[in-house]
Design goal:
The chain is of the alpha/beta class. It has 11 helices and 19 strands. Helix 1 runs parallel beside helix 2 (69-84) and helix 10 runs antiparallel to helix 11 (393-411).
Amino acid sequence: MPKIAVIGDLHLNLVAYNKIYDEEFIGLPFRNGDFMRSLRSMVDDCIDNIKPDLVVITGDVYDYYEPTNDVRGFFSKQLERFSEQKIPVIILIGNHDVCKKHHALKDIQELKLKHIKVIEEPKILKYKGMQLLLFPYSLDIERGIISIKDEFLKFKETFKEKDDGTEAVFFGHFGVKGASLSEYNIKRGKDVKVKGDFVNDSDKDVSCADLDDFGAKHFILGDYHKTQVLNTKNCYAMYTGSIEKTDFSEIDQKKGFMVYDSEAEDDAKFGKCKFIEYKGCRPMLELSGNLTKMQTQFAKQNCKNIQKAIVKFKFEGTREESTTFYLGLRKFKKEITEKINPIYMIHEKKITNPELEEECTELQKEVDKKGSIEGEDVLAILKEMIEDREKNKDEQEILKTLISEIYNKNRGTN
Protein backbone atom coordinates (compact mmCIF):
# COMPACT_ATOMS: atom_id res chain seq x y z
CA MET A 1 0.00 0.00 0.00
CA PRO A 2 1.44 3.36 -1.04
CA LYS A 3 2.79 6.48 0.57
CA ILE A 4 1.90 9.62 -1.42
CA ALA A 5 3.49 13.07 -1.07
CA VAL A 6 1.07 15.84 -2.03
CA ILE A 7 2.40 19.30 -2.94
CA GLY A 8 0.14 22.15 -4.00
CA ASP A 9 0.13 25.75 -5.22
CA LEU A 10 3.75 26.09 -6.29
CA HIS A 11 3.27 29.49 -8.04
CA LEU A 12 6.85 29.33 -9.28
CA ASN A 13 6.64 32.48 -11.42
CA LEU A 14 4.82 34.65 -8.89
CA VAL A 15 5.02 38.32 -9.89
CA ALA A 16 5.79 40.54 -6.89
CA TYR A 17 8.54 43.08 -6.15
CA ASN A 18 9.98 42.16 -9.55
CA LYS A 19 12.55 44.98 -9.56
CA ILE A 20 14.58 43.12 -6.93
CA TYR A 21 16.42 40.17 -8.45
CA ASP A 22 17.34 36.92 -6.78
CA GLU A 23 20.93 36.27 -5.73
CA GLU A 24 20.82 32.58 -6.67
CA PHE A 25 18.50 32.47 -9.69
CA ILE A 26 20.13 35.30 -11.62
CA GLY A 27 17.76 37.42 -13.68
CA LEU A 28 14.60 36.31 -11.87
CA PRO A 29 12.67 38.32 -9.24
CA PHE A 30 13.55 37.23 -5.72
CA ARG A 31 10.02 36.01 -5.03
CA ASN A 32 10.39 33.56 -7.93
CA GLY A 33 13.53 32.37 -6.18
CA ASP A 34 11.68 31.99 -2.86
CA PHE A 35 9.08 29.68 -4.38
CA MET A 36 11.65 27.76 -6.38
CA ARG A 37 13.79 27.15 -3.28
CA SER A 38 10.75 25.96 -1.33
CA LEU A 39 9.91 23.39 -4.00
CA ARG A 40 13.51 22.23 -4.20
CA SER A 41 13.54 21.79 -0.43
CA MET A 42 10.39 19.66 -0.59
CA VAL A 43 11.87 17.52 -3.35
CA ASP A 44 14.99 17.09 -1.16
CA ASP A 45 12.80 16.06 1.78
CA CYS A 46 10.86 13.56 -0.33
CA ILE A 47 13.97 11.94 -1.79
CA ASP A 48 16.08 11.93 1.38
CA ASN A 49 13.49 11.33 4.12
CA ILE A 50 9.87 10.69 3.08
CA LYS A 51 10.69 8.31 0.20
CA PRO A 52 7.13 8.31 -1.22
CA ASP A 53 5.85 5.80 -3.77
CA LEU A 54 4.13 8.62 -5.64
CA VAL A 55 4.04 12.43 -5.74
CA VAL A 56 0.86 14.34 -6.62
CA ILE A 57 1.00 18.06 -7.43
CA THR A 58 -2.48 19.51 -6.91
CA GLY A 59 -2.32 22.38 -9.40
CA ASP A 60 -1.02 25.93 -9.84
CA VAL A 61 2.51 24.93 -10.73
CA TYR A 62 2.77 28.44 -12.13
CA ASP A 63 1.26 31.72 -11.03
CA TYR A 64 0.29 32.53 -14.61
CA TYR A 65 0.30 30.42 -17.75
CA GLU A 66 3.37 31.87 -19.52
CA PRO A 67 6.39 31.07 -17.34
CA THR A 68 9.88 32.01 -18.51
CA ASN A 69 12.20 29.35 -19.86
CA ASP A 70 14.28 29.63 -16.67
CA VAL A 71 11.29 28.76 -14.51
CA ARG A 72 10.15 25.98 -16.84
CA GLY A 73 13.66 24.55 -16.82
CA PHE A 74 13.80 24.60 -13.04
CA PHE A 75 10.48 22.74 -12.72
CA SER A 76 11.57 20.17 -15.30
CA LYS A 77 14.77 19.62 -13.29
CA GLN A 78 12.78 18.83 -10.15
CA LEU A 79 10.65 16.36 -12.10
CA GLU A 80 13.83 14.80 -13.45
CA ARG A 81 15.12 14.33 -9.90
CA PHE A 82 11.99 12.38 -9.00
CA SER A 83 12.25 10.36 -12.21
CA GLU A 84 15.86 9.43 -11.47
CA GLN A 85 14.64 7.95 -8.17
CA LYS A 86 11.83 6.13 -10.03
CA ILE A 87 9.23 8.14 -8.09
CA PRO A 88 6.26 8.80 -10.40
CA VAL A 89 4.65 12.24 -10.41
CA ILE A 90 1.05 13.15 -11.23
CA ILE A 91 0.41 16.84 -12.00
CA LEU A 92 -3.09 18.32 -11.92
CA ILE A 93 -3.77 21.46 -13.92
CA GLY A 94 -4.72 24.43 -11.68
CA ASN A 95 -6.66 27.57 -12.52
CA HIS A 96 -3.44 29.64 -12.64
CA ASP A 97 -1.94 27.23 -15.16
CA VAL A 98 -4.56 27.78 -17.86
CA CYS A 99 -5.92 30.24 -20.35
CA LYS A 100 -8.85 29.54 -22.69
CA LYS A 101 -6.52 28.22 -25.40
CA HIS A 102 -4.13 25.94 -23.54
CA HIS A 103 -2.36 25.19 -20.26
CA ALA A 104 1.20 25.79 -19.16
CA LEU A 105 2.06 22.09 -18.65
CA LYS A 106 1.50 21.22 -22.32
CA ASP A 107 5.24 20.90 -23.00
CA ILE A 108 5.67 18.34 -20.23
CA GLN A 109 2.52 16.50 -21.26
CA GLU A 110 3.69 16.17 -24.87
CA LEU A 111 7.03 14.64 -23.82
CA LYS A 112 5.14 11.58 -22.50
CA LEU A 113 7.78 10.87 -19.89
CA LYS A 114 7.55 7.44 -18.31
CA HIS A 115 7.14 8.56 -14.70
CA ILE A 116 5.29 11.86 -15.27
CA LYS A 117 1.56 12.27 -15.93
CA VAL A 118 -0.23 15.59 -16.54
CA ILE A 119 -3.97 15.40 -15.80
CA GLU A 120 -6.15 17.91 -17.62
CA GLU A 121 -9.55 16.21 -17.25
CA PRO A 122 -11.14 14.31 -14.31
CA LYS A 123 -9.79 10.77 -14.23
CA ILE A 124 -9.78 7.64 -12.06
CA LEU A 125 -6.51 5.69 -11.89
CA LYS A 126 -5.84 2.37 -10.18
CA TYR A 127 -2.60 2.44 -8.22
CA LYS A 128 -1.19 -0.24 -5.90
CA GLY A 129 -4.54 -1.59 -4.78
CA MET A 130 -6.29 1.77 -4.39
CA GLN A 131 -8.20 4.30 -6.48
CA LEU A 132 -6.77 7.74 -7.26
CA LEU A 133 -9.52 10.24 -8.06
CA LEU A 134 -7.92 13.09 -9.99
CA PHE A 135 -9.84 16.33 -10.49
CA PRO A 136 -7.95 19.18 -12.21
CA TYR A 137 -9.19 22.62 -13.19
CA SER A 138 -10.11 21.64 -16.73
CA LEU A 139 -10.07 23.73 -19.88
CA ASP A 140 -13.85 23.19 -20.11
CA ILE A 141 -14.19 24.92 -16.74
CA GLU A 142 -11.91 27.77 -17.84
CA ARG A 143 -13.89 28.20 -21.05
CA GLY A 144 -17.19 28.31 -19.16
CA ILE A 145 -18.54 25.15 -20.79
CA ILE A 146 -19.22 23.61 -17.37
CA SER A 147 -19.03 24.87 -13.78
CA ILE A 148 -16.70 23.35 -11.21
CA LYS A 149 -19.64 22.10 -9.16
CA ASP A 150 -21.36 20.48 -12.14
CA GLU A 151 -18.06 18.88 -13.19
CA PHE A 152 -17.64 17.60 -9.63
CA LEU A 153 -21.16 16.12 -9.50
CA LYS A 154 -20.64 14.51 -12.91
CA PHE A 155 -17.37 12.99 -11.68
CA LYS A 156 -19.15 11.69 -8.58
CA GLU A 157 -21.57 9.71 -10.74
CA THR A 158 -18.68 8.31 -12.78
CA PHE A 159 -16.92 7.20 -9.59
CA LYS A 160 -20.03 5.53 -8.17
CA GLU A 161 -20.37 3.52 -11.38
CA LYS A 162 -16.74 2.37 -11.28
CA ASP A 163 -16.13 2.13 -7.52
CA ASP A 164 -14.70 -1.29 -6.68
CA GLY A 165 -14.73 -0.80 -2.92
CA THR A 166 -10.99 -0.28 -2.52
CA GLU A 167 -9.51 2.72 -0.73
CA ALA A 168 -10.20 5.92 -2.70
CA VAL A 169 -8.22 9.16 -2.31
CA PHE A 170 -9.39 12.30 -4.09
CA PHE A 171 -6.91 14.91 -5.33
CA GLY A 172 -8.36 18.13 -6.73
CA HIS A 173 -8.02 21.82 -7.39
CA PHE A 174 -11.03 23.97 -6.49
CA GLY A 175 -12.54 26.10 -3.76
CA VAL A 176 -14.96 24.66 -1.20
CA LYS A 177 -17.79 26.56 0.42
CA GLY A 178 -16.93 27.03 4.09
CA ALA A 179 -13.16 26.97 3.51
CA SER A 180 -10.95 29.77 4.80
CA LEU A 181 -9.51 32.10 2.16
CA SER A 182 -7.28 33.93 4.65
CA GLU A 183 -6.27 36.67 2.23
CA TYR A 184 -6.62 40.35 1.51
CA ASN A 185 -10.05 41.49 0.36
CA ILE A 186 -11.04 44.86 -1.01
CA LYS A 187 -13.54 46.77 1.14
CA ARG A 188 -16.66 47.52 -0.85
CA GLY A 189 -16.79 51.12 -1.97
CA LYS A 190 -13.19 51.75 -0.93
CA ASP A 191 -9.91 50.76 -2.49
CA VAL A 192 -8.61 49.46 0.83
CA LYS A 193 -7.08 46.04 1.36
CA VAL A 194 -8.24 44.33 4.54
CA LYS A 195 -6.48 41.29 5.96
CA GLY A 196 -8.67 38.66 7.55
CA ASP A 197 -9.75 35.05 7.78
CA PHE A 198 -12.42 35.29 5.09
CA VAL A 199 -14.64 32.29 4.39
CA ASN A 200 -15.99 31.14 1.03
CA ASP A 201 -19.78 31.45 1.28
CA SER A 202 -20.62 30.86 -2.39
CA ASP A 203 -23.45 28.41 -3.08
CA LYS A 204 -22.02 27.95 -6.58
CA ASP A 205 -19.00 26.10 -5.21
CA VAL A 206 -18.61 22.53 -4.02
CA SER A 207 -19.72 22.23 -0.38
CA CYS A 208 -18.52 20.08 2.50
CA ALA A 209 -21.79 18.16 2.18
CA ASP A 210 -20.90 17.43 -1.46
CA LEU A 211 -17.55 16.02 -0.32
CA ASP A 212 -19.27 13.87 2.32
CA ASP A 213 -21.66 12.48 -0.28
CA PHE A 214 -18.98 11.66 -2.86
CA GLY A 215 -17.79 8.36 -1.41
CA ALA A 216 -14.05 8.90 -0.99
CA LYS A 217 -12.43 8.75 2.44
CA HIS A 218 -9.73 11.41 1.88
CA PHE A 219 -9.82 14.67 -0.09
CA ILE A 220 -6.48 16.46 -0.50
CA LEU A 221 -6.94 19.73 -2.35
CA GLY A 222 -5.07 22.62 -3.89
CA ASP A 223 -6.24 26.18 -4.67
CA TYR A 224 -6.57 27.89 -1.27
CA HIS A 225 -3.23 28.87 0.20
CA LYS A 226 -4.01 28.26 3.85
CA THR A 227 -3.30 24.75 5.11
CA GLN A 228 -6.57 23.69 6.73
CA VAL A 229 -8.93 20.83 7.55
CA LEU A 230 -12.50 21.21 6.32
CA ASN A 231 -15.64 20.67 8.37
CA THR A 232 -16.77 17.36 6.89
CA LYS A 233 -18.51 14.44 8.66
CA ASN A 234 -17.96 11.33 6.54
CA CYS A 235 -14.47 11.97 5.17
CA TYR A 236 -11.17 13.70 5.86
CA ALA A 237 -10.81 16.81 3.68
CA MET A 238 -7.98 19.32 3.70
CA TYR A 239 -5.93 21.84 1.72
CA THR A 240 -2.18 21.36 1.47
CA GLY A 241 -1.73 25.14 1.27
CA SER A 242 0.85 26.99 -0.81
CA ILE A 243 4.53 26.10 -0.45
CA GLU A 244 5.63 29.67 0.38
CA LYS A 245 4.00 32.75 1.87
CA THR A 246 2.42 34.63 -1.00
CA ASP A 247 1.86 37.99 0.72
CA PHE A 248 1.32 39.55 4.14
CA SER A 249 -2.11 37.96 4.51
CA GLU A 250 -0.20 34.69 5.07
CA ILE A 251 2.42 36.09 7.43
CA ASP A 252 1.43 33.82 10.36
CA GLN A 253 0.78 30.67 8.33
CA LYS A 254 2.86 27.52 8.25
CA LYS A 255 3.79 26.23 4.80
CA GLY A 256 4.71 22.79 3.56
CA PHE A 257 3.12 19.68 2.06
CA MET A 258 1.04 16.63 2.96
CA VAL A 259 1.97 12.98 3.05
CA TYR A 260 -0.76 10.36 2.76
CA ASP A 261 0.35 7.01 4.22
CA SER A 262 -2.08 4.17 3.57
CA GLU A 263 -0.58 2.14 6.42
CA ALA A 264 -0.81 4.90 9.06
CA GLU A 265 -3.35 4.89 11.85
CA ASP A 266 -6.18 7.38 11.30
CA ASP A 267 -5.60 10.70 13.01
CA ALA A 268 -8.75 12.43 14.27
CA LYS A 269 -7.90 15.56 12.27
CA PHE A 270 -5.92 14.46 9.22
CA GLY A 271 -6.88 10.81 8.80
CA LYS A 272 -3.94 9.02 7.20
CA CYS A 273 -2.31 12.33 6.25
CA LYS A 274 0.49 14.24 7.93
CA PHE A 275 1.58 17.83 7.38
CA ILE A 276 5.32 18.35 6.76
CA GLU A 277 6.33 21.93 7.51
CA TYR A 278 8.76 23.91 5.38
CA LYS A 279 10.71 26.20 7.71
CA GLY A 280 12.63 28.18 5.12
CA CYS A 281 9.92 30.69 4.20
CA ARG A 282 10.90 34.26 3.40
CA PRO A 283 10.65 36.24 6.68
CA MET A 284 7.98 38.95 6.71
CA LEU A 285 7.75 41.77 9.24
CA GLU A 286 4.73 44.04 9.56
CA LEU A 287 5.06 47.19 11.69
CA SER A 288 1.84 49.10 12.36
CA GLY A 289 0.63 52.29 14.01
CA ASN A 290 2.47 55.61 14.12
CA LEU A 291 6.25 55.98 13.96
CA THR A 292 6.77 55.59 17.73
CA LYS A 293 4.72 52.38 17.85
CA MET A 294 6.59 50.96 14.87
CA GLN A 295 9.94 51.71 16.48
CA THR A 296 8.81 49.99 19.69
CA GLN A 297 7.63 46.91 17.75
CA PHE A 298 10.90 46.67 15.86
CA ALA A 299 12.95 46.98 19.06
CA LYS A 300 11.26 43.80 20.36
CA GLN A 301 12.18 41.69 17.32
CA ASN A 302 14.76 38.92 17.33
CA CYS A 303 16.79 40.20 14.40
CA LYS A 304 18.39 36.80 13.76
CA ASN A 305 14.99 35.41 12.71
CA ILE A 306 14.10 38.17 10.26
CA GLN A 307 17.26 38.65 8.21
CA LYS A 308 16.50 39.67 4.61
CA ALA A 309 12.81 40.02 5.44
CA ILE A 310 10.16 41.82 3.45
CA VAL A 311 9.20 44.71 5.73
CA LYS A 312 5.83 46.42 5.63
CA PHE A 313 5.14 49.74 7.35
CA LYS A 314 1.40 49.93 7.96
CA PHE A 315 0.89 53.52 9.09
CA GLU A 316 -2.27 54.32 11.07
CA GLY A 317 -2.60 57.72 12.71
CA THR A 318 -3.53 61.36 12.37
CA ARG A 319 -2.45 63.69 9.59
CA GLU A 320 0.13 65.25 11.91
CA GLU A 321 1.48 61.81 12.84
CA SER A 322 1.64 61.01 9.13
CA THR A 323 3.94 64.00 8.54
CA THR A 324 6.14 62.90 11.47
CA PHE A 325 6.21 59.37 10.06
CA TYR A 326 7.39 60.44 6.61
CA LEU A 327 9.95 62.87 7.97
CA GLY A 328 11.40 60.13 10.21
CA LEU A 329 11.07 57.27 7.74
CA ARG A 330 14.52 57.51 6.14
CA LYS A 331 16.34 57.31 9.49
CA PHE A 332 14.13 54.44 10.64
CA LYS A 333 14.76 52.53 7.43
CA LYS A 334 18.48 53.02 7.84
CA GLU A 335 18.32 51.48 11.34
CA ILE A 336 16.32 48.51 10.04
CA THR A 337 18.71 48.02 7.12
CA GLU A 338 21.73 47.95 9.43
CA LYS A 339 20.15 45.32 11.68
CA ILE A 340 18.31 42.92 9.35
CA ASN A 341 19.31 43.87 5.78
CA PRO A 342 15.73 43.63 4.45
CA ILE A 343 15.30 42.60 0.84
CA TYR A 344 12.34 44.93 0.29
CA MET A 345 10.37 47.57 2.20
CA ILE A 346 6.85 48.74 1.44
CA HIS A 347 4.24 50.79 3.24
CA GLU A 348 0.60 51.74 3.26
CA LYS A 349 -1.27 54.47 5.10
CA LYS A 350 -4.58 55.04 6.83
CA ILE A 351 -5.40 58.52 8.16
CA THR A 352 -7.59 58.28 11.26
CA ASN A 353 -8.94 61.88 11.10
CA PRO A 354 -12.23 61.21 9.26
CA GLU A 355 -12.57 64.82 8.19
CA LEU A 356 -9.05 64.86 6.75
CA GLU A 357 -8.95 61.40 5.20
CA GLU A 358 -9.96 62.69 1.77
CA GLU A 359 -7.19 65.30 1.87
CA CYS A 360 -4.44 62.80 1.17
CA THR A 361 -2.64 64.49 -1.73
CA GLU A 362 -1.18 63.09 -4.91
CA LEU A 363 2.24 63.95 -3.49
CA GLN A 364 1.77 61.69 -0.48
CA LYS A 365 0.50 58.89 -2.69
CA GLU A 366 3.63 59.23 -4.77
CA VAL A 367 5.79 59.06 -1.64
CA ASP A 368 3.93 55.89 -0.66
CA LYS A 369 4.89 54.31 -3.97
CA LYS A 370 8.54 55.34 -3.71
CA GLY A 371 9.03 53.65 -0.36
CA SER A 372 11.28 56.50 0.82
CA ILE A 373 11.22 60.27 1.02
CA GLU A 374 13.64 62.57 -0.75
CA GLY A 375 14.59 66.20 0.00
CA GLU A 376 12.24 67.52 -2.66
CA ASP A 377 9.40 65.50 -1.13
CA VAL A 378 10.07 67.09 2.26
CA LEU A 379 10.02 70.53 0.61
CA ALA A 380 6.70 69.81 -1.07
CA ILE A 381 5.16 68.51 2.18
CA LEU A 382 6.28 71.65 4.02
CA LYS A 383 4.72 73.83 1.33
CA GLU A 384 1.51 71.85 1.63
CA MET A 385 1.50 72.32 5.41
CA ILE A 386 1.93 76.08 4.88
CA GLU A 387 -1.08 76.10 2.57
CA ASP A 388 -3.13 74.18 5.13
CA ARG A 389 -2.26 76.36 8.10
CA GLU A 390 -1.71 79.84 6.64
CA LYS A 391 -4.82 81.26 4.99
CA ASN A 392 -3.25 84.54 3.85
CA LYS A 393 -2.02 84.00 0.28
CA ASP A 394 0.73 86.62 0.53
CA GLU A 395 2.08 85.06 3.72
CA GLN A 396 1.94 81.65 2.03
CA GLU A 397 4.14 82.83 -0.81
CA ILE A 398 6.65 84.50 1.54
CA LEU A 399 6.99 81.34 3.64
CA LYS A 400 7.24 79.04 0.63
CA THR A 401 9.90 81.23 -0.93
CA LEU A 402 11.84 81.21 2.34
CA ILE A 403 11.90 77.44 2.75
CA SER A 404 12.81 77.02 -0.93
CA GLU A 405 15.79 79.33 -0.46
CA ILE A 406 16.89 77.42 2.64
CA TYR A 407 16.52 74.10 0.80
CA ASN A 408 18.48 75.26 -2.26
CA LYS A 409 21.21 76.77 -0.08
CA ASN A 410 21.65 73.47 1.81
CA ARG A 411 21.85 71.64 -1.52
CA GLY A 412 24.58 74.04 -2.61
CA THR A 413 22.66 75.18 -5.68
CA ASN A 414 22.71 78.92 -4.88
